[in-house]
Amino acid sequence: MTADLTRPEIDAPEGPAPTDLEVVDVVVGDGEEAQPGATVTIHYLGAEYESGEEFDSSWSRGEPIEFPLARLIPGWQRGVPGMKVGGRRKLVVPPSLAYGPAGAGHRLSGKTLIFVIDLLGTR
Hints:
Blueprint: E1 22-27, E2 39-48, E3 54-57, H1 58-61, E4 65-68, H2 74-79, E5 88-93, E6 113-122
Antiparallel strand pairs: 1-5, 2-3, 2-4, 2-6, 5-6
Pfam family, one: FKBP_C
Protein name: Peptidyl-prolyl cis-trans isomerase
Enzyme class: isomerase
């Protein structure tokens, strides 16, 4: 079952960035549950914690994306399993579970990231 979810908006966070992964179910799905190592079909939006500015979004491209969890950042590998199809989950991912410390070579290194993920399918 696919949820009829619209493009999410991320509210500006308050307070210091968390040092551990935060996982919040915004909408609990009622479909199949994503397992560790699954290939998932998702819509997502990513923003920087400090600025709240969006840096990437499948919504902006107009179509969901499919990828194996094993190829994603550790925050997604830990934060997506257990999610059910039709659900929306917010992850707040510290640098250690995202792109590493500042200077690690990625434009998002050293940044805490917020993702809103809609799970459309899993296999």
